[in-house]
Design brief:
By secondary structure, this protein is α/β, with parallel strands linked by helices. The protein folds into two domains: 277 residues, Aminopeptidase, CATH 3.40.630; 129 residues, Aminopeptidase i, Domain 2 (Roll). 26% of the residues lie in helices and 27% in strands. It has a nine-stranded mixed beta sheet, with helices on both faces. It has a six-stranded antiparallel beta sheet with strand order 8-7-10-5-6-9. The chain has a five-stranded mixed beta sheet with strand order 11-12-20-19-15. The model has no long low-confidence stretch (mean pLDDT 96). Pfam families: Peptidase_M18.
Length: 429
């Protein structure tokens, strides 16, 4: 795939994935188009060598893989890549209706470690999953996406807060409820959803029972810079890695077992049925490799690449980095290292990744957090702890992590895609 086509498809994927549910639907569609077969968790599985498969959990996590060919089998171990589908955002509360001074608003809860200031003065839409009872009494769920701007969180004018540029902090309870419009009385939000769904789908709803809905910025993904060297978008952390992993798996020739898992709930700790700390990957391993001794032997010859974006060195805040470990945008993907095991990389897994990159002449950088600052984490240490698989934490360097709009290098995204392609194809690690 050419870099220009890769970036064009990436932007389409990002724009179509405002929530983890939509991201998984996009991944599912692309895998199906590539000939992968969906398998239900509740069904028995009959697997064919060389065939691609995928299975979903909660509609917000996906595990896709290609069975090894008969000639290679599992003897070569597995090539495994992991990412996460969720991003920090504002989620609508269960009883969100607010009516103040003639304005209709919705109460929101902050999901994950979001940068809150950038959410002000943005054109916001709403998307997610709604569960309802139909007029026949059946329970059903449907994804919705308003797509157009329906809300905004206006800033308070500086005339009313002269210290805003020096010391304004955000009260998540009182400052963040978006304004949806002007009404004479409080709007019944569930009735609003019922009317919207019925007018946009051929379904008759008795009652909306619940929902998981998130606000998002409608501004589409773009390439920016004098030479279009950057990509800006919401949810680059970590839909960028999901897309890269998907594309590398789809284009991989059959050979060793190749796997991609994209988990939900990483931004809130991964402790859920569909999170990396849940049983999704372990259950798959037990199902595909039911013999315990054989499974452990194969895992000992496998590698898990935990792909999650890294902090690029910001030219305006260079002092926030270790001076020897400040990754630059468009200078290559990053190997992430932390002696306190916030990342799962060790010298051997780092060497494997670096060797793969060198073999295809792709540059690689290194990130270590400043010794006087706390370090974030990824699904890497969790997956390594749960399964015992040797793991390397890597990622594309970016700016504005956890903002409503993030920025990364165009070259870095394509570099990581090239490395994962090589990783999936290699018969010996």
């Amino acid at each position: 795939m050419q870099p220009s086509v890769f970036i064009h498809d990436l932007k389409l994927f990002l724009d179509a994935s405002p929530t983890p549910f939509h991201a998984v639907q996009q991944l599912k569609h692309r895998f199906e188009t590539a000939g992968f077969v969906e398998l239900s968790e509740s069904a028995s599985w009959v697997l064919t060598p060389g065939q691609g498969y995928f299975t979903l959990k909660n509609g917000s996590s996906i595990l896709a893989w290609r069975q090894p060919t008969e000639s290679v089998g599992f003897a070569a171990g597995m090539r495994m890549t992991g990412a996460h589908t969720d991003s920090p955002c504002l989620r609508v509360k269960p009883q969100p209706e607010m009516h103040r001074h003639g304005y209709s608003q919705l109460g929101v809860e902050v999901y994950g470690g979001a940068l809150l200031n950038p959410w002000f003065d943005r054109d916001l839409s709403l998307a997610g999953r709604v569960t309802f009872r139909t007029s026949t009494g059946a329970l059903n769920s449907q994804l919705i996406d308003f797509k157009k701007p329906i809300a905004v969180i206006p800033s308070l004018a500086i005339h009313l807060d002269r210290e805003a540029n020096a010391s304004r902090s955000i009260n998540a309870q009182t400052y963040l409820p978006p304004i949806l419009g002007q009404t004479q009385e409080k709007t019944d939000f569930r009735e609003f959803l019922k009317t919207y769904i019925e007018s946009n789908a051929s379904v008759s709803i008795d009652k909306v029972l619940d929902y998981e809905l998130s606000f998002y910025d409608v501004n589409p993904a773009n390439t920016v810079g004098l030479s279009d060297e950057f990509i800006t978008s919401a949810r680059l952390d970590n839909l960028l890695s999901c897309f890269i992993g998907m594309q590398a798996l789809i284009e991989a020739a059959p050979g060793p077992c190749q796997l991609l898992i994209c988990n939900d709930h990483e931004e809130v700790g991964s402790a859920s049925a569909c999170g990396a700390q849940g049983p999704m990957l372990s259950q798959w391993l037990e199902r595909v490799l039911p013999k315990t001794d054989e499974r452990w032997s194969i895992l000992a010859r496998s590698l898990f690449v935990s792909a999650d974006n890294a902090h690029g060195i910001h030219p305006n805040f260079a002092d926030r980095h270790d001076e020897n470990h400040g990754p630059k945008l468009n200078a290559g993907p990053v190997v992430k290292i932390n002696s306190n095991q916030r990342y799962a990389t060790n010298s051997e897994t780092s060497a494997i990744f670096r060797n793969l990159a060198e073999s295809i002449q792709v540059p690689v950088q290194c990130f270590v957090v400043r010794s006087d600052m706390a370090c974030g984490s990824t699904i890497g240490p969790i997956t390594a702890t749960e399964t015992g698989i040797a793991t390397v934490d890597v990622g594309v360097p970016q700016f504005a992590m956890h903002s409503i709009r993030e920025m990364a290098g165009v070259k870095d995204a394509f570099y990581l895609y090239q490395i994962l392609q090589s990783f999936n194809a290699t018969k010996a690690l």
